[in-house]
Amino acid sequence: MKQMAAATKLRRIIEDPNSFILCPGVYDGFSARVALNVGFDGIYMTGAGSSASVLGHADLGMMTQTHMRNQAEMITDLGALPQYATTDGPVPLIADADTGYGGPIMVSRTVEQYARSGVAGLHIEDQVQTKRCGHLGGKEVVSRDVYFSRIRAAVNARKRIGSDIVIIARTDALQTHGYDESIKRLKGAYEAGADVAFFEGLTSKEQAAQMIKAVAPMPALLNMVESGATPSFTVAEAKETGFKVMIVPFAAIVSAYAAMKTGLEYLKATGSMPDKAKEMTPQQLFRICGLDASIQVDKESGGENFKSGVD
Ligand SMILES: C[C@](O)(C(=O)O)[C@H](CC(=O)O)C(=O)O
């Protein structure tokens, strides 16, 4: 059976009144592998995490469109591997697309390229080009008209290439323009053809519930940044509030940071790795990254490169 595109798969989930999708944030090939091995139905490419991983810099708009697209494509390639894809297609990736990286022409190009790279959904926001993480103070947003032109460019691009890629309209307007303006922006984005509402920086559970009602029937995404502007929601709470999608951008990176720091501090202090880390063999590490599937490819092709195994 021909596989459905990941975008179509995500679109069906969003359109199904009984579905909900939880996507942990991944930021590179390794974190994507770990999330896929754990078995999530969808994954999220965090721009903040990618910026930290690829550039070693904060989420201040330093990642270019090319960086982000390349990163997204590497991750969708992994989610399409036979060991992760289901009969109805690859594991859907929702990818951060920041401001779309320019005017309508660049937004359009971003949507086309993300779609061609197998991205299932992407979010475009209304921050100025010198953007920052949505949970930092001092944000600035563009006018409603400029924002809507970004959304229109995204929707037109999707239609032009006949893709099902899910367009998620994000607004960062709460900080400077307030709740009502943010709702106007999301509703206007829906009228312009966006599929999902992403109200950045919701400050309370009541506000989240109010927002869901206000934007209905537009489905909504919850950005669960722990210790950010938004209170902590469990998946059960997000579902009950009426969200369709929940992303947890820092799920992998904060876990990785804690473990990395502990291991490195231990090495520095003692001159040796912690016992737990020592237990992992190179083979085990590479098995996380598909070692056995790669060896199988060689074997099935008549290759003899791994005849005597790797163990
Ligand atoms: C969702 C987000 O765009 C991301 O890059 O993951 C960030 C997360 C963060 O930096 O807190 C955002 O909310 O702006």
Automatic annotation (TrEMBL):
It catalyses: (2S,3R)-3-hydroxybutane-1,2,3-tricarboxylate = pyruvate + succinate. Gene3D superfamilies: Phosphoenolpyruvate-binding domains. GO terms for molecular function: methylisocitrate lyase activity. SUPFAM superfamilies: Phosphoenolpyruvate/pyruvate domain. It comes from the Eukaryota. Belongs to the isocitrate lyase/PEP mutase superfamily. This is Uncharacterized protein. The lineage of its organism: Eukaryota, Fungi, Dikarya, Ascomycota, Pezizomycotina.
